[in-house]
Amino acid sequence: MRVLILMGSPRLGGNTAELCKPFIDEFKLSGAETEYITLHDKNISPCLGCYRCQGVAGEYGCVQNDDMQDVVRSILKADVLVFATPVYIWQSTPEIKAVMDRMYGLNKFYGSAPREVLNKGQSYALLTTCGYEFEYGADLLGEGIRRWCVHSGLNYLGMYAVRDEDDLASFKTEAAVNGARVFARKIIGASAPVIRRYKILTDFSRVYRFLQETYDPVTLNSMLLPQYFEYAHTHPYFDYFNTHRFGIMEDGGEIVGIACYEMKPGSCCHLHTDKHHSHLLPELLNWAERELSVKTESGERSLEFWVTDKEPDKIELLKSNGYTLASSEPINIFRYNKPFPERALPDGFRFIDGTEADYKKLHDCFWKGFDHDDNPDDDFEGNIFSCNSPHSDISLMTIVVAPDGEYSCALGMWYDEHNRYAYLEPLATVPKYRRMGLATAALSEAMKKRKCWAQNIASAARASFIWLSALKRCAIGNFGRRNGKPALILSAVSL
Predict the structure, then answer these.
(1) CA distance 84 to 105
(2) What is the DSSP string of 272-298?
(3) Whole-number Å distance between alpha carbons of 429 and 365
(4) What letter would DSSP give residue 371?
(5) Is the dihedral of CA 237, 238, 241, 245 positive or negative?
């Protein structure tokens, strides 16, 4: 764990500095990496309110080249940020306040840059000295930091405040020193990441939001798109009764990582963390090998992961643990900043969207289209359930109706407003209607629909369309044990 303490007292040997001594000592005893920065001797100008930082994506972006640039670099490395400040008039000192104002560039909420918090998931704490009891002297400062944390997806770990009753001696008492040490231990305990089991009824929405906020369609930092996570949860073949085997990594109560399967244990599994917690991937892998692997007929265990070739840390981790490459396939990305090819349907065929769908016909189309056989079962309720999942929009579904009224081709589409892309899942064509250009026409129609609908909420040039074939993704075999380790399959995806 990395702890950064920003000391904002104008007196380098004053009360607050004295209270910091046992506080820092406790962190060092625990093995935490601790950095202590005094702000009194730093050149940190006030925020200009120019909003330039809000137009710079993925980095701090402040135009002022002063000591705050170095402070921000330290902030972004820390797991816990502690503001140490005396309270003179119910607020922090100017030194601390200048830093807080200049941290505005970490929150990309108010400009052209994509919405993000560069230090999301970080924990904040306060160490204060004041002339009154906490409830009257320091409560307003604490409430301000708490609201900041709520607003920015940060963790507020609380405040330790000691009243000045006898100048420096007040902060050398046994009670003051022990209190500082206890508060440090509380921070260490609250900030230590823990992994626990997934609780499907209470965790689904939190995990979906985590995946949405941490996925990057530019760098392709995960195969686990939030839309597919939801689609899988509403799929008839999804194994609900083993979802307790998913591992949820939390840091300060916030989700920072997940190990899970898509449909069932053993196959199409994923490891994913936010960018601040990638060092936890080995722990998530250990969980996955224990909880998500399956026993083969020979009694050995098998586990399969999907990653993109843009994830070198995961690839190296899997290789170093005995995984081998089993299969690869492309991810197709279609940009909306290019003209759409015109794809006409054959005579007698027509398009409808999901709002007009006959779910029995839709079920038959997917059943035959995914090559089950020519005799669909009667379990079409699963399609109704899937089409009405929390983030689905059935108006984005595209269905090709044959001249006799049969559904010959169908695709679903999900739109991620946060990341500005549309995701196709699933796509199927009934065998007797293949090689007629129906899937190509449906795909083009769906993309046009998404672009027209998106123009009111996002620039079409910023949107992208991502297609992954669910059928091919599941067509991977298992391997036996190698060199005494479980048979673990690494599947990579190349652009």
Answers:
(1) 21
(2) EE-TT-GGGHHHHHHHHHHHT-EE-TT
(3) 7
(4) T
(5) positive
477 has a pLDDT exceeding 60: no
Walk me through the domains of the chain, giving residue ranges and CATH numbers: 2-192 (3.40.50.360), 195-331+473-494 (3.40.630), 335-467 (3.40.630.30)
> How much is the pLDDT for 104?
94
- Which tens digit of pLDDT belongs to each residue from 242-287? 999 999 998 877 899 999 999 999 988 999 998 878 888 888 999 9
Task: State the pLDDT at residue 83.
Answer: 96
Q: Is the pLDDT reported for residue 183 higher than 50?
A: yes
CB-based contact 24:56 (threshold 8 Å): no
Return the sign of the alpha-carbon dihedral for residues 195, 277, 205, 388.
negative
- Most distant CA atoms of the chain, gap in Å: 92
| CA dihedral angle for residue 226, residue 227, residue 233, residue 236, rounded to 10 degrees | -160
Rounded distance between C-alpha atoms, residue 84 and residue 127, angstroms: 5
| Per-residue pLDDT at 487 exceeds 70 | no
Contact, 161 vs 134, CB < 8 A?
yes
